[in-house]
Amino acid sequence: MATSTPNQAGRILISGAGIAGPVAGYWLAQAGYSVTIVEHAPSIRTSGQSIDVRGHALTVLQSMGLEEEVRSRTTHEKGLRFIDDHGTTKAEFPVDPDGPSFTADIEIQRGDLAEILYDATRDKIEYIFNESISSISEDGHGTTLEFTSGLQRRTVDLLVIADGISSRTREIAFPDLPSSTVQNLGQWSAWFTIPRLQNDDGWARWYNAPKGRMILVRPDTSQQKSRVSLWIITTSDLESTLVKSQNTENQKQLWTSLFTDADWSETPHILQGMMSSSDFYAQKVAQVKMPRWSTSSTVALGDAAYCPSPISGMGTTLAITGAYILAGEIARNRPDIPSGLAWYETRMRPFVKTAQELFPGTPWLANPQTRLGIWLLHLLLAFVAWMDWARVLGARYSPAADAIELPEYAFSWGFFRGKTATATARRREEGVGT
Where is the FAD-binding domain (predicted)? Predict the structure, then answer.
């Protein structure tokens, strides 16, 4: 069993220093736990795509005192334009701060948010880089961990797995997971930055090419770069080729061959920039659906437990909200960790289920195979924009980022009352919705 000092509630180790891990670490430290985060990378990964901060995710960041810093590092993206081969806008959707839209009111680079969270927690919790877990052993009273790169064996009260969709730690901790846990959506994406394109005016640009291909260019916080993602609908043969292409340079060559005949005038500049980029990475587009998230002293969090896919726009919201609720339930049920884990799953499951319900026809509808299909897509989007139906469709098919009651938790060094919890309490006092 893990031992703790009189001033500690217990010892917790988190695998993964992305978004969910540091947020959970912050709140667990607030509750008096001794927290360590191990990360297999040599440092915080500052690359990555633009991510949305919506609903309760923003509420939690506000409670951590980070809203001002987050807002200062947003991309200031103006909205999204769908363009043709000549760069001509076929449909335009500006930011809508009052309702659902393609671009969130707060759009920030994943790496910037990870850096903000690291800076906010590095003095409160222990970070160990270049390290990962090699074995996990539970005895009903804690978890004993061994590591790959020399860190001595540790026994902790709780292991939190927050190391992403391809988590190896998850496979070690839950060896009986079904093969359907990671559900491929039939699409791959590649992400990288390039020198800022000449026509980058603060709008995101979405370009479709035949054979289910898409190029998305978005502004960067620095204003010196453009952030690019390439997307392609995969066949079984292409899927196999992409999986086998592990070397970064080989991956770049493969993606170049897949997009070299895309007719957008910016394509050559984008592919040339990709070949010299230092932050390139590619991954399949998938969802994670674990039948259970925890054992007696191990729990999965964020993308490792319930990745909704980048298509949903809900990954960051689930990660931050889930981290806060996990920490809160552990604190509320102390010292009964299994009960805290059960309550975490009870509260989060319905929210996760809603977030993972994608728009019908995703991702094929937005990535046509033919020029006729692209023309029809542009026609449909132009009609939606002209009728100003984006908010209506978003409200109908996009999961609300606050579609869960954010509970109230008493932490040993503070007390946070969530906005939704406050509003719910007020409605109950007024006899509304009861």
Answer: 12-353
